[in-house]
Amino acid sequence: MMFVSGLCSALLLYTGLASVLGQDLGDMPFNESLDLAGTVSLRWGFDSKQETITFQLACKTSGWVGFGLSPSGEMDGSDIVIGGVNPNGTTYFTDRHAVGDQLPLVDGSQDYTLLSLKEDATGTTMKFSRKVQTCDKDDMEISTSAMKLIYAYGADDSIAYHNNARGTKSVNLLQSTQRSTPSQDTVGQLEMMVNSFAVPERETYYHCRIIKSPNFPGKRHVYRIEPKIQSGNVDLVHHMLVYACPASVSVELEGECYSGQSMYVFSSCQQVVIGWAVGGQDIWMPPNAGISIGTSDDPVFYRLEMHYSNSKLSKGRVDSSGLVFHYTSELRANDVGMLEMGLIVDPSYVIPPNAKDFKTYGLCNTSTFSQVLSGDPPVLNVFASLLHTHLAGRGVRVGHYRNGEQIGFLGKNEHYDFNLQETMFLGSLVQVKGGDEILVECTYNTESRKTATQGGLGTTNEMCLAFLLYYPRTKLASCWSLPEPTAMSAALGVKGTSELVALMNSSVWNDTAVGRFERTVRSLPQLMAVSLSNGTRTVGLGFIREFKSSPATACTTLPLRGAGESCAPVTAGLGLCIALLTSLISLTGTL
């Protein structure tokens, strides 16, 4: 019944979303380009009454096309469909699953339905649908978490190895947002880029550039943020952040972010405006909100932070990457803000080696906001999140608490992939009210590491962060926490970080020892720090609450079925859910 409950929640959420957007759920209101070149694009929509999802894959090829859901972003274990149009005009379409790197096997149960398949001068377009839960062991369930979508295509209709004609993108299919493109005569571009920067021969390098905003004739709203990665440098650019600078910053500047005299100027620009990480693509604001630029309340100077991950220590690499802000004079109702949350990036937080699923937590209690902000505590309407760890990260969840009880999630990626970090939309607004608590949980795997992993800026160090997009904008910059240092030293019997790291590297870490260390650290009081864009900050103490498991969505089958019959989900609960939806629709008249 937990599957039924979880699906009901998704259906109700989607019904509400369609009501707000004025869309029929039978349409395909959502779309994503699956590659930077725009060769492969996907449209989709969800039908709450039929519990089905419909896809339309468009690919610039006259050969076969493939699309799938993957547990890891790789082909092995994926749920795949392959189709195309033969030279004689006939079509082919099969539901398959991948085992290893061989040609995907045809499923015994064909659970995808082909709706149309055509080929013309622009390429091949394949439209198909399936149940959210097919109850077929060879199919992946479509959940409200981020899904790793894979695609591949061929130059002709001989289905064979795709070479480099493939890709992966992480997308939340059941919780997305529509895009609203303003009229062309109202738009412009603001570039936040580095210019022919010589990337050092260092494994990790953070480069900062302070950029002055042009003078605008009036307020503008940024509705889309486009990453521009220089050709050939995809392997170098790990993440990009744009920060708002306070009035004290009045000159353009460039240099290493966290070293040298300039670091003090760079660090004064604390409020994140937008963030992008490896694997991400364009970030679109919802139709009723945008990032404000051009007013007296907006920054004059911005700091662009580029994290270069030069793991091969390549020489002579030059980069001119960055972010492009697409703005419009067609103003929207709300100004967007971004709030950074999670674990303070500090070497005193240490993850033991040989850990299968070690968990860390960053706490934010919004009660502390009133200590740095005037007036009533703000209500944050959260609509999206960007979740961030480094190489050891395997999962990130953002729990939302009210009156001591967890009431939901503000972001969730339980199959985190370092190379696929997308901004994920929640599907509907979630209000964070004064007194609410937010808990960022990160899960790490260090089984391949023989020494301790410390928090830090390097790719082989670790972070546990969540960047929440919300409106209306406030002056809040960050809300982080860290186990209180004195309590941690006393609980572990060490003095300072160096002794803790030495203990980690000298001890034998098995599952029992890892679990005991995790529980000890989690039980400690948490030192919380809240910062504003002007550098004002306050600290407080809190404790980590229990974290709910994500709703179970495993397939539940009828207890009795004849030999050879296909698996079918229990329909009683689903029927009740649909009846509830029907009643709601008739009462509200939204559809």
Automatic annotation (TrEMBL):
Gene3D superfamilies: 2.60.120.230, Copper type II, ascorbate-dependent monooxygenase, N-terminal domain (2.60.120.310). Residues 1-22 form the signal peptide. Its cofactor is Cu(2+). The keyword Transcription regulation does not apply. Keywords: Copper, Disulfide bond, Glycoprotein, Signal. It comes from the Eukaryota. One of its GO terms (biological process) is octopamine biosynthetic process. One of its GO terms (molecular function) is copper ion binding. The keyword 4Fe-4S does not apply. CDD domains: DOMON_DOH. InterPro entries: Cu2_ascorb_mOase-like_C (IPR014784), Cu2_ascorb_mOase_N (IPR000323), Cu2_ascorb_mOase_N_sf (IPR036939), Cu2_monoox_C (IPR024548), DBH-like (IPR000945), DOH_DOMON (IPR045266), DOMON_domain (IPR005018), PHM/PNGase_F_dom_sf (IPR008977). SMART domains: DoH. GO terms for cellular component: extracellular space; secretory granule membrane. Pfam families: Cu2_monoox_C (PF03712), Cu2_monooxygen (PF01082), DOMON (PF03351). PROSITE patterns: DOMON. Residues 38-154 form the DOMON domain. Belongs to the copper type II ascorbate-dependent monooxygenase family. PANTHER family: DBH-LIKE MONOOXYGENASE PROTEIN 2 HOMOLOG (PTHR10157:SF41), DOPAMINE BETA HYDROXYLASE RELATED (PTHR10157). This is DOMON domain-containing protein. It comes from Acipenser oxyrinchus oxyrinchus.
